[in-house]
Amino acid sequence: MATLHDEAFWDGPSQEPLLPKQGRRQRSKPTKTERVETRGRARALQALYAADLRDQAQLRRIATTVFDDLAIDPEERAFAARLVATVADRGADLDAALAEVTNNWRLERLGAIERSVLRLAAAELARDETPVKVVLQEAVHLAERYGTERSARFVNGVLDAYARKLGKL
Q1: How far apart, in whole angstroms, are the C-alpha atoms of residue 156 and residue 68?
Q2: Which of 39, 43, 51, 123 sits at 20 to 30 Å (Cα–Cα) from 9?
Q3: Are 15 and 31 in contact (CB under 8 A)?
Q4: How far apart are CA 112 and CA 108, in angstroms?
Q5: What percentage of the chain's residues is helix, strand, coil (to nearest 5)?
Q6: How far apart are CA 66 and CA 61, in angstroms?
Q7: What is the C-alpha separation between 75 and 20, in angstroms, rounded?
Q8: Helix (H) or strand (E) holding 8
Q9: In sequence order, what are the residues at sequence separation of 6 or more whose Cβ sits closer than 8 angstroms to the Cβ of residue 55?
Q10: pLDDT per residue of the chain (169 residues) written in tens, 0 to 9
Q11: Kindly report the CA angle at 119 between 114 and 121, in degrees rounded to 5?
Q12: Within 10 A of 64 (CB to CB), how many other CB atoms are there?
């Protein structure tokens, strides 16, 4: 299993690593198979995860550091920054709403990946700019990619209940 220090943890084995190799310039543009929004969600997840492990109150600063360190594409950064800003501005409300639909699970007891993916998806649903089914599908994909298959199923169930509670499904 990949760890935080492994390049495969952040980018998966089928893509170029996010951290540049010595003497090699990193490619920061999205791959042909991934849209800017998809890559932006992954970048926002990285920032949310890092803040979850360090200090959620410093989310904006941590996100800026993560984005700067990774030298991501400006379009990806803009998309990710909007999602991170929504979590930073409305985090307590989003967490409270998510807690209502996580039956028998307190949000703080969830794994950092699952919690971060749920916050990311809740923020994107709150922005109301992306179709609900796309938000759910992308969140499940992120949970599976960075978590486990069980993570993906859990995230799918929670977000389905959350979207229904909001009247979006």
Answers
A1: 31
A2: 123
A3: yes
A4: 9
A5: 70, 0, 30
A6: 9
A7: 20
A8: helix 7-11
A9: 62
A10: 444 444 544 444 433 333 333 443 343 444 545 799 999 999 999 999 999 999 999 999 999 999 999 999 999 999 999 999 999 999 999 999 999 998 778 888 899 999 999 999 999 999 999 999 999 999 999 999 999 999 999 999 999 999 999 999 8
A11: 95
A12: 15
d(CA 123, CA 128): 9
Question: Token digits for 139?
Answer: 């969140």
Instruction: Say how far apart CA 142 and CA 114 lie, in whole Å.
Output: 9
Closest CA to 162 of 129, 111, 120, 113: 120
Residue in this structure with the two tokens 């979590």, named with its chain if needed: 87
Placement of tokens 């807690």 in the chain: 99
- Tokens standing for residue 138: 């992308």
Q: Is 66 strand, coil or helix?
A: helix
Q: DSSP states of 109-120 as a string?
A: GS-HHHHHHHHH
